[in-house]
Amino acid sequence: MVSTKTESEISLMSYAGKVCYELLELMETKVKAGITTKELDQIAEKFIREKGCTPSFLNYEGYPASICTSINEEVVHGIPSNRKLKNGDIISIDVGACYKGYHGDTARTYKVGNISNEVSELMKYTKEALYKGLSVIKPGIKLNEICKAVESVAKEHGYGVIRELTGHGIGTDMHEDPYIPNYSNNESELILKEGMTLAIEPMFSLKGRKVWLLDDDWTIITQDGSPAAHYEHTIVVTKDGYKILTGE
Ligand code: MF3
Ligand code: CO
Ligand code: CO
After folding, report:
1. Segment 23-47, tens digit of pLDDT
2. Whose CA is nearest to atom 8 of ligand 1?
3. Mind giving me the DSSP string for 124-146?
4. Is the distance from the beta carbon of residue 68 to the nearest atom of ligand 1 less than 6 Å?
5. 39, 97, 131, 158: which has the fewest C-beta neighbours closer than 10 Å?
6. Torsion sign (Cα): 220, 223, 229, 235
7. In the chain, where are the structural domains located?
8. Domain 7-241 has CATH 3.40.1180.10
């Protein structure tokens, strides 16, 4: 069932979303060669709690940390560890905060020092795909319009669209209906309505779209080892468009 949220629910989600946005801004200043992903996780957990929220990811289906830190060929759900970032890495940081029972969820890919032009473009165009997906959102459109818009950017640049993971509805649960694939499909028939809250999150790889799950049962990596990027915003469908709840 796809729900619509009331104004007061949306204001709780927009606080949770704002905390998530500020956290990704803070991460921007912390991502540097030498820092460990566990240190990033500790900074994030402290920040989320200081803002009166709880980390949405911690203990979610047994997930052991407050953020996901996915490096290079890791697509999503990388678990923070003692691994140090190094020059030339990219890292996708996905964060979630829960305020009075309502979640925000947002992600970005950061570069560490100098990266190649092709990887820099992968980041740029994955972000562009997120905004292109958002740009079509308004009441009355079919969900698949978002899927198609996101996919079109991957197609244009020859990137792999990860199919095993999708965007989603969000609210009192981090993952609610509907699921939102990043490729055109004939199941995304839902007609959007004002008050729906959605997380849109393209995940693209430089080459192949196939992924594997690591033995830690969380980390998703590309099978061909090519780097992957991930950008995500939580939004609400408004009367004539959408509003981003996770900043910018
Ligand atoms: N934030 C992820 C998403 O965008 C889900 C993370 S689940 C976790 O949907 F358990 F790994 F944290
Ligand atoms: Co997320
Ligand atoms: Co999400």
Report:
1. 999 999 999 999 999 999 999 999 9
2. 57
3. HHHHHHHHHHHHT--TTSBHHHH
4. yes
5. 158
6. negative
7. 7-241
8. no
Q: Quick one: pLDDT at residue 231? A: 99
Give ∠ CA 144-246-38 in degrees, rounded to 5: 110
The DSSP element (H or E) to which 170 belongs, if any, is none
Beta carbons within 8 Å of 46's beta carbon, 6+ residues apart:
none
For residue 160 the two structure tokens come to 């792999």
Supply the pLDDT for residue 67: 99
Give the 3-state secondary structure of residue 155: helix
Q: Is the CB of residue 167 below 6 angstroms from any atom belonging to ligand 1?
A: no
- Orientation of helix 143-157 relative to helix 117-135, angle to 10°: 160
pLDDT band, residue 236 (cuts 50/70/90): very high
Residue nearest to atom 3 of ligand 1 (CA): 105
- For residue 97, pLDDT over 90 is answered with yes
- Does ligand 1 come within 6 angstroms of the Cβ of 105? yes
